[in-house]
Amino acid sequence: MKKILQHTWKSLRYNIGGLLIFEAGYRILTFFLAMQMVEKAVEISLKHQGYSYLTGENFGKFLQSPWTIVLFWGVFVILLLFFLIEASALLWGFQHSAAKRKLYASDFLIEGIKGVCHFLKQGKFLWLLWAALAVPFLSAYFLVQEVSYVGLLEFAAKEIYQKVEPHGLLYLFLAVLLIISACSAFILPYCLLENEKSAAGVRRGIGLLRKRWKEILKGFLFLYLIIAAVGAAFYLLVTVGMTGAVMLFRTGNGRISSVLIYREYIQMAMGVFVGGVQMTGSLAFVYAVYSRFHRKKAEEVPLCQLVHSYSWLSRLGRRRAAAYLTLLFVGLEGGYLAAMAVSHDTVLESLNADTNITAHRGGALRAPENTLSALSDSWECGADSAEIDVQETKDGVLVLLHDESLKRITRMDKNIWEVTYEEIRELDAGSSFGKEYQGEKIPTLEEVLNFCRGRLDLNIEIKYNGKNKGIVQRVIQVIRENHFEENCVVTSMSYQFLEQIKETAPEIRTGYIMTMSYGSISEAAAADFFSVRYDYITERFVREAHALGKEVHAWTVNYRGNIRRMLDMGVDDIITDDPVLVRKVQNQESGTKTGFRELLEYALGI
């Protein structure tokens, strides 16, 4: 293992300067190109499907569309091509390092492109499968980090996780995929450096791994520990530096939001940086194993001759120019990121709102959710309004309940549409929260309206479960009979429900609940405001909604840093489990100083 690691370092060290410049420039370029391609693919698919925006409600249909399938397969092929160019550049670069040939950043790029073109000209399309399978292992950190950064990908990942039961099957699939991917990584040198046929290359790569798998496994574990330590140290160093800069150059309330904004950019950059380190280190290790133990060919391809093939510029001048241009490109990209962050930070200073505080599920932190006790506690805690969930029983009575099933709250293993109100009245909705709430009942919507009159405004969410198509008219009827139109809003994840409300009762304000938001919201005429999960809200979204004369409500916000971020972003309503905490952030942090240690905790997400 020690010799393999020494050989790995030797492969990296000889051309370390050109390697670092190439990786930095190539990674930044391909990252932003990938983001632009994904965004453009989503926009084209939405347009051809007749959607102006993408939410959780239409996400399934969006994915099933032929337009989405074709466009995203196209993006995948281009990204795979980017990966092959990078892998080819690195592997050929390591081969040149072993032969003591000096390379500049431009040479890495040329080698990568030439290697992939040669690879494709040979018609080895079966190799593409093995190359694609190598991606998860060689780019695991980058993939995880960018999935968490790109809202669309994060939402898709969460949807998959929720739908795969039991979750152990998903973990097993990922484990098997990583093992196959690791094996595929050792096939790449035969794929890109030699003229092997697919079957022969696979056998040689797997054979290489099988004979020394224990030594290779130990080496990879040690290598990844080093990469993790370097990444953690770099992240901490950059975060501390960023926090110090905010302390020096920012004042007042804006410090916390600035730290949270810059933290997002640092995390994005870490995905690119550590992802590049992982890819480079892993392929250097793979090449070290390959070059030490495989049966060498009688001759090597003299690709180094290609650097003499440019007659329009001398070798030295071309390399220096390429190196300077690459450094300039990296500097410009870094400046672009900084300018983007500063522009977001500047926007914050002009966004101010008298933000409303809404207790989530009636006030579920200190009392059983969706009960009169919870609503009473929310009123006493100073919440401006309460969000409640409404469903209907088998006999059409409107009651407060979040889940379709009664099991979590009352331990009755039946769905709400399977029981009558008489049965509901006998259930205990408080014991599952605490003994002191034993005997707490599930209230009706009418009981809640009477209780909240003069105390709390209400955000009435109508749940859609496929069994309650007539629920909208019943909700409107109860609101009108109790003269509560001026003291409530009605929200739903079903846009059709909002359209029904506007047709029957245009005086009632409506809100469209969005688990995610992508695209333009200008055509959502039936929504007076948008209730969006807080981590999908951006300054751009807030500005667009306000420009349309509509509000933005953020849910469910419970962490102090996120509360501060939403307040500074200018959202109109914060839906939270802890109204007291939101009120404290509003009142106590306004005009007070924030120390370095507290800012650093925000930056690290502690």
A few lines on this structure:
The protein is built from 24 helices and 11 strands. The protein has 606 residues and is an alpha/beta fold. The two termini are 38 Å apart.
Helix percentage range: 55-70%
What is the count of β-strands?
11
Amino-to-carboxy terminus distance:
38 Å
Average predicted confidence as pLDDT: 84
- The shape, in one word, is elongated
How many individual helices?
A: 24
Q: Look at the helices and sheets and give the structural class.
A: alpha/beta
Low-pLDDT residue intervals, each spanning 5 or more residues = 297-316, 345-353
The description of the largest β-sheet is: 8 strands, parallel, barrel
Strand content: 5-15%
| Spatial strand arrangement across the major sheet | 2-3-5-6-7-9-10-11
Domain count:
2
Radius of gyration: 29 Å
Protein model, in words:
The protein has two domains: 2-344, no CATH class; 356-404 and 443-604, Phosphatidylinositol (PI) phosphodiesterase (TIM Barrel), CATH 3.20.20. It contains 24 helices and eleven strands. The protein has helices at 2-13, 16-49, 59-64, 66-98, 105-121, 126-138, 140-149, 151-163, 167-185, 188-192, 198-211, 213-249, 254-293, 315-350, 372-380, 407-410, 421-425, 445-452, 471-481, 495-504, 539-547, 560-569, 579-588, 596-604, and strands at residues 53-54, 356-359, 385-392, 398-400, 457-462, 488-492, 509-514, 518-519, 529-533, 551-555, 573-576. It has an eight-stranded parallel beta barrel, surrounded by seven helices. It has a two-stranded antiparallel ribbon with strand order 1-8. Helix 2 packs antiparallel against helix 4, helix 7 (140-149) crosses helix 8 (151-163) and helix 13 crosses helix 24. It is elongated. It starts with a helix and ends with a helix. The model is unreliable at 297-316 and 345-353 (pLDDT under 50). InterPro entries: GlyceroP-diester-Pdiesterase_M, GP_PDE_dom, PLC-like_Pdiesterase_TIM-brl. Residues 355-586 form the GP-PDE domain. This is Glycerophosphodiester phosphodiesterase.
